[in-house]
Amino acid sequence: MDSMDFTTIQLNRHEGNALYLQLCGALERAIVAGDLVPGERLPSERDMAILLGVSRTTAVNAYRELEARGLVRGHVGRGTFVSAGPDTSGAPFAWRGKVAVGALRTEDPSLRWLAGSSGNRELISFAAAVAAPECMPVEIIGELVEGNLRRRGSAAMLLGPTEGMPELRRAIAARRQVRPEQVLVLSGAQQGLDLIARCLLDPGDTVIIDRPGYLGAIQTFRAAGAHLAGWDVERADFEELEDLILRYRPKFLYTNPTFQNPTGQTMPVPVRRELLELAARYRLPVVEDDPYSELSFDGQRVTSLYELDPYHLVIYIGTFSKVLAAGLRLGWLMASEAIIDQLALIKQRNDVSSQTLGQLVVAGFITGGHLDRHLITLRHEHRQRYRAMCASIERHLTPGQLSYLPVDGGMYLWCTLRAGVDAVDLLRAASANGVIFAIGEIFNVDGGGRHRVRLSFSSVPSEAIDEGVRRLGVLLDAQPLAHEIAGTIPIAR
Ligand SMILES: Cc1ncc(COP(=O)(O)O)c(C=O)c1O
Q: How many CB atoms within 10 Å of residue 47?
């Protein structure tokens, strides 16, 4: 974007308003109009004074006033930067202007919105990425909570080791046939992504990431200042991957290879092997994010990159969010002990211990055989819902309105809309009609996805799926789409 031409700012010496306030007002208007955007550097106070033929004091006072309003932020030795658009909330203190430049990279609210929407009972949410809530083993969890409190008393509520409670580390290790020392318990998989970013990335480093790929990973790596290079996992063009490695010297490759978020697709084992060979040749760490592999409809779990890796270059992240309950906030990471140790030290900085009682409960849930039984129920229900969604699409949508990739598990249908239909327009119209979903754009690091949507089938009962798809069908048939609600959904473009 072209920078603003500051010489066009008109100041009037004969006006009652002080010159510095006029200058401040002009810059504020430019920020509101988007002529100056967050992150943009203003000319130095001295240069601004020369450009406008005013005293340096006028420029200094104008910048101070803008800073007090939270619109710019000064950095010693680097200059003054636009920090945010004007705050229309009338907040008594302009906190937004105090936010560090690094934190401004974390502005996109889409993930929080997606998480929040899962609790809204008014909506038919094809956006929420959660397992069938009706299958949640609430009673068993209740018994395990009670049992742990009875047997262990207050110890069940004290802090545990940062690496995780030995009971849970052992239970995970036995399930995945690794040693407990190779397991780091996490407060959710998202924490694992954040730890890896803080451990392996410096600002300006490159990460190779699925295209399309998981929004939470995109946001976390971006917030760490990384440059993201997308790799189309479906096409799996290894020449392209090698080019990316040679061009950018990435710090790691991130992939969600099984029932991927958002496409629902699974990387075949031969492709996994080839990926590992290439990564080993270039000594490239691979981060395997794997929340969905236990959710195959037929109960088979595809061999993970971690299991296939003889080189110890894979860091594996698992989570109980998708197979048990996201609200427990428990996941885990498996890797070589050296990196586990480093990651645990970083974890300690803001999460001394993942919640103890929850860890004991999940450990009991696994060792008591409940997880395996629960997974059978969950897979069955998810398969029903998947079939219901496919049948509803067949029933309610005119052929050609929407196509999708079939899946063998997971939670998502990755759909392509008929040419000319923009996913954002459809979402606006749909949410006015009580249906929401995730738009394709938010999963793409380098553009694209405007005609794609991700429909999650797992969290909606079959009858509601049918109703939701019926409403989408009506909207897709109506031309043009009605723009009834504007501005209530934060949509990253
Ligand atoms: C690929 C992927 N990784 C990580 C997460 C976050 O999981 P958790 O709830 O355990 O933080 C999600 C959630 O949707 C996901 O899809």
A: 14
Task: Give me the residue label for tokens 């560090």.
Answer: 100
Give residue 318 CA to ligand 1 midpoint distance, Å: 9
| DSSP code string of 443-475 | G-TTS--TTEEEEE-TTS-HHHHHHHHHHHHHH
Residue 100 has pLDDT above 90, yes or no: no
Neighbours of 366 (CB within 10 A): 20
Q: How far is the CA of 358 from the centre of ligand 1 (A)?
A: 18
pLDDT band at 112; cut points 50, 70, 90 = low
Cα of 24 to ligand 1 centre, how many Å?
A: 44
Q: Which atom of ligand 1 is nearest to the CA of 331?
A: 10
pLDDT at 300 over 80: yes
**Pairing outcome for strands 124-125 and 206-210:** unpaired
**DSSP letters of 79-145?**
EEEE-----TT--SS-GGGGS-HHHHTT---HHHHHHHHTT-TTSEESS-----GGG--HHHHHHHH
- Residue 35 Cα to ligand 1 midpoint, Å, equals 37
In the chain, count H helices and then E strands: 17, 15
Confidence at residue 146, expressed as pLDDT on a 0 to 100 scale: 97
For residue range 152-200, what is the model confidence (pLDDT) as tens digits? Answer: 998 899 999 999 999 999 999 999 999 999 999 999 999 999 999 999 9
Of 481, 491, 479, 388, whose CA–CA distance to 430 is shortest?
481
Atom of ligand 1 nearest to the CA of 326: 9
3-state secondary structure 187-220: CCHHHHHHHHHHHHCCCCCEEEEECCCCHHHHHH
Average pLDDT score, the chain: 90
Ligand 1, atom 7: closest residue by C-alpha: 189
Rounded CA Rg of the chain: 26
Atom index in ligand 1 nearest the CA of residue 319 equals 10
Query: How much is the average pLDDT of 357-371?
Result: 98
Burial class, 320, CB count within 10 angstroms (exposed 0-12 / middle 13-18 / buried 19+): buried
